[in-house]
Amino acid sequence: VTLPLTLSDFARAAAERLDAGPLAYYSGGAGDELTLRENEAAWRRIAVRPRVLVDVSQRDLSTTVLGRECPHPIFVAPTAFHRLAHSEGELATARGAAAADALYCMSSLATTSPVAVAEAAPAGRRWFQLYVFKDRGVSDALVDAAVEHGYEAIVVTADLPVLGVRERELRSGYAIDAAELIPDLHSGDLALTDIGTLIDPSLSWEDVERFAAGCGLPVLVKGVMTADDAVLAADHGAAGVVVSNHGGRQLDTVRAGAEALPEIAEAAGDRLDVLVDGGIRRGTDVLKALALGARAVMVGRPVLWGLAVGGEDGVRSVLEILRAELDVALALAGVPRAADLDGASVEPARWAGGVPFTA
Ligand code: FNR
Ligand code: LAC
Question: pTM score, two decimals?
Answer without folding.
Answer: 0.97
